[in-house]
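Narrative summary of target 7.
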Amino acid sequence: MKKILYVFFAFLFSLVSADLNGQVIQGIVDESPVAEEDGIVADYEVYGLKKTQKRYVEQQLLPFMGKKKSEVNEKKIELALRVTGLFSKQECAFRKNADGSFTLVIHVEEKMSYIPLPFAMCSGTGLMFGGFLMNMNAFGMNDKLVAGGIYGPNSWTDWSPRMLMANFMFIKSPKDITHPGFSVHASVMKRTREMVDENDDYIVSEFETFAVKTGASLTHQINRNFCTRIGVNYAYVYPEENFPLNHGFGGSLGMSFASSSYNGWFLSANSLSANSSFMYYTEDGFMPSVQVRAITQLPLCKRIRFEGSLGYAQSWNTMWNEYDGGGSVGVAILPGKYVSNFLSGTTAGFEFGVLDIKKGSLDIGHLGVYLKGEAVVSENYDGDCFFDYGITGGAKIYLSKINMPAFSFSWSCNMKRPLTQLYTFSIGISM
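Modeled conformation, tokenized:
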């Protein structure tokens, strides 16, 4: 379940911070004699806005206002609008006014702001279904509003719930370096969880948990790629009947760097994130944790890219229901029900674009296949450290509109433990 949430919030962050338009800028070049004249860019006009508020667009245009026309590049204006992720098309031109100044004239086409993201997943650990509804332009100010849920039955034959979860998140995007953003989130979860040993030979523990978690954080945007976060959190955790109720209070600190590029086939990202949380529970005391992830996607040519990652996750004095699985450090070769309070992993491999998927003139998406090596160090429930290595391969279908995986199949083999072979099949949110 945590792997699904890591994937989902990574996906959400990529929509917030990355350029998802994935199209070559189609700027209008003004070839009239006016283009060779100069004057102050004094005003602007925007056409095509439906949901987006004009004052949000004005915030993006302020750096260009009041400058001489010769100092303003239309391509940079279009880029500033494109990276907001709100528009599928943006074009700009200049119109000369009677007083010698210029008016910036912009035509835009808005993307669909409501994005439904259903998913279904089948893996060696069970079934999972759910979906999220995302408003990517809440209140017309490029804020994000997300709500959804996850349901996991016990098995193909027993559809009673093994896990139920509901999530809500609102993200107020930072305007600039002097205007921080904020986010609020809440989740409710009831689940039955099994913990297995590193060989997946036997069940170490099985318990039920009901938890309510909520929090809020401030985001300070240093520049377009780098931001820092500070937050406060509350957790209400009710384990099995023979365990006492736990209230948790604490905070979190984090930073992230992300950049992206699009080469007409792959939306590639480079990111570095570090997060720490400090929770105090009424029954179990102080529980700090740290997570660090670094990801690189480097296109070697249009249809081949290198992918690599490093990950580290550790917690201290933590309840078992808060332990992390291999997905927290980006590896898939560990047993799906194996969790640990210490993991450090790395991956490296290649992804190949193999097929365009079209129906007539409609560009649906494309198919990619990948193969990568993985290695991970983890600590089992006895405190012993283990080193595992193996390979993971699979296929993904990317939708053209958002250029994120909507279908995936993966197969993993742990070479240290040959019997540990894992598979995952998913439709919807996948990475």
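DSSP finds three helices and 19 strands in the chain.
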